[in-house]
Amino acid sequence: MKNTLINYVEFKAHDLEKTKSFYHNTFGWIFTDYGPTYTAFSESGLEGGFEKTEKPIANGALIVLHHKNLSEIQTRIEQEGGAITVPIFSFPGGRRFHFSDPSGNELAVWSEN
User: Fold this and answer.
1) Rounded distance between C-alpha atoms, residue 9 and residue 65, angstroms
2) What element of type H or E holds 72?
């Protein structure tokens, strides 16, 4: 997989079951649950997921990039004026962090390593 391509998109949802039903019945998306607060989707053209939240949803999409070396890309992001908003954390399948660009847009970068 090439580095820094858009690889995944993540949305927020208040009700995962209702959200899954809507996207499956309307568009045919397939879902895989990863615990009670997260479900991933496929068969949509771009893989992604929904994270359960109780907070109000504003700008609910999170674009997720892929990079094999999180430390390297984190350093470059910071050197170019980006800010780390969520430090590196582990999840089933890899690790990731979130950052904001100089305009305030939040994105994430993940790696299987």
Assistant:
1) 9
2) helix 70-79
Interatomic CA distance for residues 113 and 106, integer angstroms: 22
Closest of 14, 19, 67, 15 to residue 44, by C-alpha: 19
> pTM for the complete prediction?
0.78
> Are residues 55 and 14 in contact, defined by beta-carbon separation less than 8 angstroms?
no
Strands 38-42 and 30-33: antiparallel
Measured CA to CA, the distance from residue 49 to residue 37 in angstroms comes to 11
Strand order in the sheet with 48-52: 30-33, 38-42, 48-52, 6-13, 61-66, 106-111, 94-100, 83-91
% helix, strand, coil for the chain, step of 5: 20, 45, 35
pLDDT tens per residue across span 38-82: 999 999 989 999 999 999 988 789 999 999 999 999 999 999 999
Average model confidence (pLDDT) across the chain: 93
